[in-house]
Amino acid sequence: MDKAEGLKVDIADLRAWLSEEEEALAALREGRADALMGAAGVIGLSGTERPYQIFFQAMNEGGLTLDADGRILHCNPRFSAMVGLPIDALRNRPLADRVVAADRVRLSRFLTGHVVATCEARLLKDSGGTVPVQISQTPMELDGQRLSCLVVSDLTAHVEAERAVHESQALLNLFIQNAPASLAMFDRQMRYLAVNRRWRDDYRLGEREIIGCSYYEIFPEFMAEWKAFHRRCLAGEVVRAEVDRFERADGSIQWLRWELRPWFVSDGEVGGLIIFSEDITLQRHAENQLRVTARVFDQAGEAIVVTGPDNIIQAVNATFTKISGYTVSEAIGQQPSLLKSGRHSNEFYQAMWQAINSKGYWQGEIWNRRKTGETFPEWLTITRVDDERGEVEHYVAVFSDITQIKDSQRKAEFLAAHDALTGLPNRNLFHDRLRHALAQARRNNSRLALMFIDLDNFKTINDTLGHDVGDELLKQVATRLRDAIRDVDTVARLGGDEFTAIISECTAELANQVAARIIDDLAAAYTIREHSLYISASIGIAFYPEDGVDSAELIKAADAAMYRAKEQGRNRVEFFVPDLRVRLLKRAMLESALRAALRHNRLRLVFQPKIALREGHPVVGAEALLRWRDPELGDVSPAEFIPAAEASGLILEIGRETHRLLLHRLVEWRALGLSVPPVALNVSPRCIREASFAEQLVAEIAAAGLPSNCVQVEITEGALLENSDNVVANLEKLATAGIGISIDDFGTGYSSLSYLKRLPLTELKIDKSFVDGLGQDKEDEAIARAVLALAHALDLKTVAEGVETVAQLDWLTQMGCDIAQGYYFARPLEADDFKNLIEAKGREG
Amino acid sequence: MTDPKMKPTQYVLRLYIAGQTPKSLAAVSNLNRICEEFLQGQYEVEVIDLLENPHLAEGDQIIAIPTLVRKLPEPIRKVIGDLSDTEKTLIGLQLKPR
Lengths: 845, 98
Description:
The complex is a heterodimer. By secondary structure, chain A is of the alpha+beta class. Chain A has 32 helices and 33 strands. In chain B, strands 2-1-4-5 form a four-stranded mixed β-sheet, covered by helices on one side. Strand 1 of chain A pairs antiparallel with strand 3 of chain B, so a sheet runs across the interface.
């Protein structure tokens, strides 16, 4: 036969074979079958040798053949692997050499038997150590020679499994012995078969020999009742009691849970019974304790809420339901925030939890909300309950409703702030309210009226009809006053017959109406104890901010107005009239101080640098600003003294002083050889209207020996609007002389393009109020853009005032503004500082 | 209703054992039990002791004992072992789906 043909094995057949071999080997390993490798197996079956060889080589069992002397004729790779030696090294060597010495005799007997059988032995590994194996032998004869075919199964896994079984049996025994319950096993005659440690302990049997003894012999005092139980159990019933009371010999009470359970032998007959009993005395005590606690929980006067660590409510008591209105089933499963009133901030709760987590508890007053929606104050204690590992097990909140306590507290607070007789706010609360109203008016930029209301001739009523009638009258007056004003406003009683009203957001007209209504309402007849009484009132009114900017000033003004009403004949309303004399006096003081300042050279100039918005930001000019420091008044702001100077005509003298100061500086700096950029003077509208203004300035500059273009003139847009020929004439003369003209605060006035076009201007200054919004306010940007466009159209330079941020600077630079000034570059500098600046810049340049 | 003409499937089983070993005895007893329980009236069993007739192993290519061979219905199925696992045996005989 063709060799190739002979080797041609149907792969499917081989697979089927191999799976059968696997099955066979599994059965061998598990001891369900014996190997049969006789003449019929390995040899002589045509067509099957090949699969057998493959199987023999590949199988997961050791396979070998021995000769009659026990030498290895052939073995497979698995066996070679088991003993850790190559196949060649094993050939012709006795198998006994590879077996533990102690097992050799047994092996030899097994092999000599030469029958189908198995034996267990331990193989020696070449590397040291042993492998437990099971050896199946199939004897066979080949060509008259006795051979043994052996299959060697590795039992390591079995041995370990067996050890595990033994261990688990020992474990089970240990478990039973140490079970926290008493266990005993009896046969049908109630003789002890087995007991555990606990049984001996519980029944105080010590180490007494009891196995084989009868239950009744050990417990002769046992009641007939128990015999009946045993009988029932031996008849097949499970008898048990959950809680049973025993009185011990020493009189102590023991609580037991017990069970009698029959056990069965294989034929289904009851073999005896097992008694299980558990001493639950301690448990009973704990349960009792628990019952007491539960009663406390249920009947406590305080509401109690128990949550888990997740803050979900697990239990609430009856008082909780009474206070909150939520039933137990409505509360359980919810969070305590169910009761949140919304009155407290998140910070409040955060602080609370922080305390609970760090200190273990929190205590305090908190407002919560009932199911009805009503909020109520409670006194709350939250305690964290930890388990033995220190982790949160529960939070317990205990609270009581303190509404009543709070009510009386509120009453006390009310009384402290209110007049006991009329219930109106008293003097203290009035002061609070006034301060509050003033702060609000200041914020809202609104007016506020303060009224002082005094009853005319009240003293007479009090003296003639008695205090009781007087008090009753005051009460009724209070009611009428309260009705006469809006709810948002305040009526207070300052004492005696003096009342006051605070009316916020109030015009003179409204104040007048309210006052007139009060006069009318109070004039109607009062009936007090059959008396018909009439009374009038005098009212004084003062306004914030005109008549006073704080409480004290305003009260003084309203009081003064009220006295004037009395003086003017009572039953009337008077507004506060500021004392003109005081104002004049103030003005006069300021003027004389200003004259003294001029005389004593107390005015000085500071210099605000003007910076070109191009490479290097060079200083291209400055604006000279006037400052006055008075030895008595301190620093007086130009905003305060310039209006006074303009009103008094002193402004002309101040103008001249300004020129003198500036020209003096310029001469001084030029003498030092500095190149000084043009410095602008602020010229008052009053000055520019003077016919000789330009001529004088030009003359002064010339007299100082300075070129006229070293000075610039800044006038406000408003000054241009004054209908004066002199203004235009002056501007033209200045321009002719080469003096630059800046329009200050441009954009705030209403100058028309055609008008501006006719004027010889050189610069437009963009007012700080528009610069402020650059980069954020679209409207400001639109105005600034328009000014820049206008200046461009008129061929004027542009100067941005009050530049403070880089965003403004970027915007202006981008939009082509020429020059900027402001804190971003420099604050107004004292003369020496400015000199140093141009000196430094000069050196740089 | 069963068709009276349709005969129920007939099982022809052959059990190979080797002498009176405990496994062989167990296999005989287990096989009897399983047949009575699952194949009542539908089976024939032949027990072959290879110690007595070693040559008979050839036909079914027996390599381990006990081995149960289902000769009929075809195809031939083998269950190796003492048949103590009834479930496995039933699956092996295709009396129960795998």
